[in-house]
Amino acid sequence: MHVTVTGRNIELTSALKEYLIxxxxxxxKHFDHSLTITALxxxxxxxxxxxxxxxxxxxxxxxxxxxxxxxxxxMYASIDLVADKIERQLRKYKTRYYHKGNHSKLKGDRELVGxxxxxxxxxxxxxxDNGFGHKDTAVSEDTxxxxxxxxxxxxxxxxxxxxxxxxxxxxxxxFMFINSESSQVNTVYHRRxxxxxxxxxxx
Length: 203
Prior knowledge:
Layout: E1 2-8, H1 14-28, E2 36-43, E3 53-61, E4 64-72, H2 75-96, E5 112-114, E6 116-117, E7 120-121, E8 157-158, H3 160-170, E9 174-179, E10 185-190, E11 196-199
Parallel strand pairs: 1-2, 5-11, 8-9
Antiparallel strand pairs: 2-3, 3-4, 6-7, 9-10, 10-11
C-alpha cells in the first residue's frame, strides 16, 4: 500500500501519519494488489466551525474513484471515521463490481426508476450538502445561507446504470453525468424506497 499524505493548516507529525496508515491498512486486505491512496488532513481556520478537523481519503481503482471525507473536533476521530467509510466502500466495490464480467452492470435488487412516476411528480429527497455528498455544518443561525464551497469537475458520457455505480462508490446522494444515449446532462439520485431516480431535462 502506497499512501501520500498532505497537510493543510496542520503539522503532519510522525505519530499522526503512522496512525492514518495503520487505519488504512484494513482497506488493503480486500485486494491482492497494492493500493495507491492519497490523503488530505486539514484544519478549518474559521473558529465558528465546530467540526474543524477534516480527513479526506481518495483511492483510484480500475478507473473508479473511492473517496471519503469526515470532519470532527479531533483529527484522530476524523481518521477513524473516514477509514471506516473507505473500508465499507471498498468492500461494496469488490462485492458488486470487481467480479469479472460485472464492471458495467449493476448487481443487486435496486431498480433504476425515472424522475416521474405514473401517479404524478416525483418527490425528491436531496439532503442538504455541498453537492458532493459531504454535509456542510455549523452554519450560524444569525446569518443567511450562502454558497460556502464550490467545485468544478468534468462530466463524463456514460449510461445511467454506470452513473449509479459511480454514485455509490463515491458515497454521494446524487451524481451528474452526460447520458451517452441523449448527450444531455442527467442526474441520478437515491430514493427513500432504496431504488434509484433519474432526472432528465425536458425536451
